[in-house]
Amino acid sequence: MVQKVLFSCLLLSLISFRRLLAEEECGKCDRLECPLVTFCPVGVTQDKCGCCDICLKRLGEKCDYAPEGKEVSKVVYGECGEFLSCSEDNICECAEEGQVCGSDGLTYNSLCELMEETTKNNELNVVDREPCRKGPVIKSPPKDSSRPAESILVLDCEAIGYPVPTLTWEFYRPDGSTIQLPSDDSLVAVQVRGGPEKHMVSGWVQIMKVLPENVGIYTCIATNSQGVAKASAKVTFSKGKAPVKKY
């Protein structure tokens, strides 16, 4: 019984001592003496004394790491802000992945990146948790080509946009006729795939034999809900006598 009483007294003394140390370190709280906090892009918290408002730590800033389920044993740097987490290296990192659309019409690689931008534009906010919708842009157009008769030719085209564009080809013959590709011409093949970058699509037209019936203008057409983009290339014979047309 005596031991329990002594232990309780010791525990109370320890708690009182820690409170006394905290009071000596922090002093009496007077919020009138606190620095003015006008804008914190990732949120506000209180200092370790629980008195003054301070900004939460931003992306890339030093922070106090604690394993999951445990509290920080000693506050040195501070706490990470909204949508951020503290890494084992004591650096604030983005806790959310995925591109977002800002009210400025720009796509940001992450919500954290957008929050950082609010330090320059405090009216910036999230419009959508996905990339901003944007009409297609031809990033790599097909190029004019001159080839010997019956040689192989590949035309390529890359387009980007959101939603991801669809890519099609049209062939304009010198006689004014238009052919949608792929057609029934076994010498002309069309391929399309996604990439190489995000929200990009790539396409190719492969001419197995450059003949009179497949020289002309080839147009790459990128389309999505926001618009259409086109780029063309002219295919001609290189120097030498061209073969006779078969169409």
Automatic annotation (TrEMBL):
InterPro entries: Growth_fac_rcpt_cys_sf, Ig-like_dom, Ig-like_dom_sf, Ig-like_fold, Ig_sub, Ig_sub2, IGFBP-like, IGFBP_rP_mac25
Cellular component aspect of the GO annotation: extracellular region
Domain of life according to the entry: Eukaryota
Keywords in alphabetical order: Disulfide bond, Immunoglobulin domain, Secreted, Signal
Claim: Transcription regulation is one of the keywords in the record: no
Gene Ontology process terms (BP): regulation of cell growth; regulation of signal transduction
Domain IGFBP N-terminal per the UniProt entry, residue ranges: 22-95
Signal peptide bounds: 1-22
A Pfam family assignment: Kazal_2
GO MF: insulin-like growth factor binding
Main location: secreted
Protein name: IGFBP-related protein 1
